[in-house]
Amino acid sequence: MYDTTGAWGRCLLYLFLLKGMAINMEKIFEQALLYDFYGDLLTEHQRQVYESAVFDDMSLGEIASEQGISRQGVHDLIKRCDKILLEYEAKLHLVDRFTKAKQKISQIEALTQGGDKKDSAEALSERLREIRDLTKDLLDTL
Questions:
Q1: Which CATH architecture has domain 1-92?
Q2: Is the pLDDT of residue 33 over 70?
């Protein structure tokens, strides 16, 4: 095990905790994005339990008592919902296409903000070509 009594040990422990929180935040963000796109395809009961766990940050015990099911049942239902949402994404790729479209729009925005009045006609022409290419790619993505 790691020695957490010294300054380096506490720093190491802190980094582990931060890394864990970052990974957890990424998972929550992914769950929320998948739910935004595919949540309506879950049953009402699945939506209630999933929202309580992911968005309301309720414990398994709290959800179990609210829903009248066991903690294990809540756990299994959340895992099943995660699997269902991931399967929808694997088939439909809506989140992936949304993410790619958002990136292209950000690139277009950056290209429209760049430059100034002193840019050469050639530089402006190149920027317009890049914007056209990104727009074409964006339309193909959608």
A1: Orthogonal Bundle (1.10)
A2: yes
